[in-house]
Amino acid sequence: MAEEQPAQIPPTQEPAAEGAEAKGPSKSELKKRAKEAEKAKKAAEKAAKQAELEAQKAAADVDFATEFYGKAPLNQSQSRTGRPRVQIASLNPNMDGETVLLRARVQTSRAQGNKMVFLNLRQRIDSVQALLTVTPEKVSKQMVKWTAGLQDESIVLVEGVVKKSPEIIKSATVGDVELHISQIHLVAGLESRLPFTVEDAARPETEIETNDEVQYKRVLLDTRLNNRIVDLRTQTNQAVFKLQHGISYFFREYLESKGFIEIHSPKLQGAATESGASVFKVGYFKGNAFLAQSPQLAKQMAIAADFERVYEIGPVFRAEDSNTHRHLTEFIGLDLEMVIEEHYHEVMELIDSLLKHVFKGLKEQYAKEIQAVNRQFPAEEFKWLDETLRLTFKQAVDILVEDGVDRSSLDDINTENEKRLGRLVKAKYDTDYFIVDKFPMELRPFYTMPDPEDPTVSNSYDFFMRGEEILSGAQRIHDPTLLAEKMRSKGVDPASMPAYLDAFKMGCPPHGGGGIGLERVLMLFLKLNNVRRASLFPRDPKRLEP
Amino acid sequence: MAEEQPAQIPPTQEPAAEGAEAKGPSKSELKKRAKEAEKAKKAAEKAAKQAELEAQKAAADVDFATEFYGKAPLNQSQSRTGRPRVQIASLNPNMDGETVLLRARVQTSRAQGNKMVFLNLRQRIDSVQALLTVTPEKVSKQMVKWTAGLQDESIVLVEGVVKKSPEIIKSATVGDVELHISQIHLVAGLESRLPFTVEDAARPETEIETNDEVQYKRVLLDTRLNNRIVDLRTQTNQAVFKLQHGISYFFREYLESKGFIEIHSPKLQGAATESGASVFKVGYFKGNAFLAQSPQLAKQMAIAADFERVYEIGPVFRAEDSNTHRHLTEFIGLDLEMVIEEHYHEVMELIDSLLKHVFKGLKEQYAKEIQAVNRQFPAEEFKWLDETLRLTFKQAVDILVEDGVDRSSLDDINTENEKRLGRLVKAKYDTDYFIVDKFPMELRPFYTMPDPEDPTVSNSYDFFMRGEEILSGAQRIHDPTLLAEKMRSKGVDPASMPAYLDAFKMGCPPHGGGGIGLERVLMLFLKLNNVRRASLFPRDPKRLEP
Questions:
Q1: Most buried of A25, A120, B59, B455 (most Cβ within 10 A)?
Q2: Domain holding B94: CATH number?
Q3: First vs last C-alpha separation in chain B
Q4: Domain Aminoacyl-transfer RNA synthetases class-II family profile: where (chains A, B) (predicted)?
């Protein structure tokens, strides 16, 4: 069966045609002959194909590589060899000749003829080029074919030899080596079509706009978020969420070095507190509860309970129907509260040092991740000053007025004017980060301590990054009489918050603090332009999935 | 005015009485005289009091110490001297003679006559004895009187001289020095009566039970929780929540050293997932949302999104009407999930090492806090083995049967039998900590991977401390077909969780993990006997405040 049978080819019509020169065949005869010729050709092709298939089948019968490739059985923890697996990031030219084992995604595959296939293998933000070539007794044609047929995003377990690559491979992050595959097994395949490729999802907007020759697919934010699992696999997003972790890490590291302890305050509350922002209502057995819009009350109560310095990293909930680039209905608050010995600037300065510790940590220890994000989201490096610029609210208003903003519109500084202020400050001081202190009392919540001299001004501050607010904070009122008075003046019934007021009646030291939006810091540090990109599974008024 | 005026005393009646011996006064005369005498005595007393008052008033007029004591003005950040304040914990005999400034609570005060007052000053878990004595030109009688009148739990700013104390003062944690007060100001007083004293709240149950001479006030748990702010001030609770912080700290430290990153998954979910346990329903704009009962689905999705190793510390919500010593409706989950290379024991062993890292960290770095808690909650030291005891579910059942439990009741091991197992294991192996592996499939959720040999058994485990479960975990099903099949067999409609199933259809590596209840670990490590004591502001079906 393995021998090739020559396809039967009908004799050519030429001699007949020659003899028929004088008379010549009729038109219908010509048509008929052409038809027959066509038929014969098709039959020949079919026979050739058949022969090829049979040849392949024959070759398949002697596939010597079956053990070296294929679908692995479902891992149910059948066995444990303990054989080490390596990280792509650790591969380097010094390993030339070493055989390694690794698990990775197939980002792309490209066959060259039927004897060779190139794979781009990916682990998180790292990738390497791998190739498989038909080799007697080692790599069969079938093995190459099977590998070439692997769907993008398949997870494979690969054994191969590290080879120093003759020239840097630009399509991989580890470009100075390639992997010559000796074994490849499918650990997990796909049971569905990809909504978009990880390559498309990782392409910078600028490349899509400036490249006229190729029509790239643009993956819209909503499509990404609907298929967040695939979107999160881009090297950009792998880096974004490592950086998110970095922010919390440095936040904790700094505060713990300053004697803070972490607390966990309840998100379920008995009353809708801190009137103003809307709260979500929860069915709670036979009654109702409300989701905390911040750990504000709890952390102040912890201060009244002698905790001295506390922080919390946890979800906060806002039932505001705001559909903007910077609002989420659920986000992570980095909150802190501490006793004041003399002056609330003790808190403000501690928060300032804390944020600079975070910026410095990211810049120094996450350079690779920042670079990875920059490839898709180009941004000027985030800048701050050794001595942070501090403006009073009044000074900030003056700067805006000087730039042409109508003073009468500046009782509060709205989002647009905040950005303008950010640009003006950047131009003048070359910083993306500054503090505005001493906000008007009427812009702040009831628990804000008034200035000792001017009762219309408060001991409160906002911190800004690239012209957007990332932190609000203040000295709080620790005196129950003044607190109740301010509650009433802001339309809050003191009787509606008995446990909170009681905390101050039991004696509470002067204190202050602030709350930072984790996703906002991440968005603004990296200039991601939409806070949803800084949230693993973002929630907004229109999104509760995935 | 400063000179004392002798009180006017009426002449005694004695001479008249002598002369009247023969005749003797009439009964009515005697009565009248007695009345007059009484009247005169009262007048004398009144005059004496008046004189004393005037004397005091006179003395007050020349109080030379007014600057050294009194109520401080409300701190509104009027000024900032930057003068350092010390911690009680840092005071020691080498500082003998040094003048220090510190802010503290007055735990108790005890006047000795009108010239001396002893204060027990407290900062978190530390306390020191301070005394104030009338001293010419330095401490006035008025100053002593004012200080003696300070309500317990007042916050004071004290300047004083450290003195090596002649003998150890047992009522203070820093017993080898005392503080001789030169200035004392009230930073924050109380505007309400204390519901109970911090001393009463800190008293060990054993002391209340065994002491027949003194009738101590027992502060019940509900009273404590209703007035949690005061209850949290006990040295016990200050230590408990430092230890709570310690658990998270060591949890993170270990996982970060193993390449895990922290994620934050949304607590608001579009569907009520993981059927079985009840979920809280939330009004979400015009529709509904549900509170996550665990980050289970999100962390698995993070694995499908190539995060490799993730952890989360965050609130989880259980709408179960369980009113027991170990159930809360909101608690903190320490969750982790990781890719499995070959066998789920990779995860189980990592969790085991993680927990031992936590125990070791607490024991070595929080000895002082553990001791503080033990004073109120005496407990045998928590014990674990270098090589953790692992039982299979079957072995655990056998141990119970051998001890007399009816095998037919052991399809599941209930709370009572868990405790029994804990006691039996402790007696035999001298450990408070062990693992039970290979739970029956029917006891575990749909996403649990079945054993490769025996489909009635699963690749899952529970971890125990002092006979109570603190962690559940398993290898998860990463194959979407098998997952959908198991969902249906457990009565969950795969169509109700499309985003979750999609994650696996897009290719997901084998993985496993577990979830630890923070409060349970804390409760069991310290033997607090009620999980509410391990939660800052606990939530149960009957409690949403404070």
A1: A120
A2: 2.40.50.140
A3: 55
A4: 241-538
The closest CB to that of B268, out of A330, A332, A345, belongs to A330
Radius of gyration of chain A (CA): 34
Classify residue B281 by burial, with Cβ atoms within 10 Å: 0-12, 13-18, 19+: middle
Whether B520 is catalytic is yes
Residue B154 in contact with partner chain A when CB distance is under 8 A: yes
Active-site residue A326, yes or no?
Answer: yes
- Nearest-CA distance from A501 to chain B in Å? 10
User: Which domain covers residue B130, as residue numbers?
Assistant: 69-74+82-188
B446 and B404, same structural domain?
Answer: yes
Q: What does the pLDDT look like over A9-29, one tens digit per residue?
A: 444 444 444 444 445 667 777
Residue B127 C-alpha, separation from nearest chain A C-alpha, in angstroms: 13
Of the candidates A74, A265, A269, which has its C-beta nearest B544's C-beta?
A269
B224 is catalytic: no
H helical segments located in B196-344: 198-202, 205-210, 221-226, 228-231, 235-257, 296-304
Task: Indicate whether B225 and B249 sit together in one domain.
Answer: no
Specify burial of residue A430 (Cβ count, 10 A radius: 0-12, 13-18, 19+): exposed
The rounded distance, in Å, linking the Cα atoms of A143 and A190 is: 19
Q: Are residues B226 and B316 in the same domain?
A: no
Half-sphere exposure of A31 (CA within 13 A, CB side): 3
Cβ proximity of A360 and A535 under 8 Å: no
- Whether residues B163 and B207 fall in one domain: no
Q: Does B191 touch chain A (CB under 8 A)?
A: yes
Kindly report whether the peptide bond that precedes residue B538 is cis, defined as omega within 30 degrees of 0.
no
Q: Is the domain of B352 the same as that of B496?
A: yes
Please report, in tens digits, the pLDDT of each residue of chain B (546 residues total): 344 444 444 444 444 444 444 456 677 777 887 788 788 888 888 888 887 877 766 655 688 989 999 999 999 999 999 999 999 999 999 999 999 999 999 999 999 999 999 999 999 999 999 999 999 999 999 999 999 999 999 999 999 999 999 999 999 999 999 999 999 999 999 998 999 999 999 998 887 777 677 777 889 999 999 999 999 999 999 999 999 999 999 999 999 999 999 999 999 998 876 655 689 999 999 999 999 999 999 999 999 999 999 999 999 999 999 999 999 999 999 999 999 999 999 999 999 999 999 999 999 999 999 999 999 999 999 999 999 999 999 999 999 999 999 998 888 899 999 999 999 999 999 999 999 999 999 999 999 999 999 999 999 999 999 999 999 999 999 999 999 999 999 888 898 888 889 999 999 999 999 999 999 999 999 999 999 999 999 999 999 989
Cβ-defined contact of B301 to A262 (cutoff 8 Å): no
Active site residue A469: yes
The catalytic position among B140, B472, B478, B533 is B472
| Min distance A75 CA to chain B CA atoms (Å) | 7
- Whether A500 and B546 lie within 8 Å, measured CB to CB: yes
Residue B142's Cβ-side half-sphere holds a number of Cα atoms within 13 Å equal to 18
- Asked if the structure places residue B412 within a domain, the reply is yes
Residue from A203, A318, A511, A533 carrying the catalytic annotation: A318
Judging contacts by C-beta atoms under 8 Å, the chain A residues touching residue B238 are 306-307
Domain membership flag for residue B32: no
Note whether residue B520 is domain-resident: yes
Q: How far is CA B331 from the centre of its chain?
A: 15
Count of domains for chain B: 3
Interface test with A, best of B71, B75, B121, B318 (most A CBs within 10 A): B75
Query: Is B185 in the A-facing interface, judged by CB distances under 8 Å?
Result: no
Our answer to whether residue A122 is catalytic in this structure is no
The verdict on residue B38 lying in a domain is: no
- Say whether both A373 and A459 belong to one domain: yes
B544 and A268 within 8 Å at the Cβ level: the answer is yes
Token code pair at residue B515: 């979830």
B124 and B215 fall within a common domain: no
The CA distance from B74 to the nearest CA of chain A, in Å, is 8
Q: What is the CATH number of the domain that holds A439?
A: 3.30.930.10
pTM of the model: 0.87
**Residue A208 and residue A147 share a domain:** no
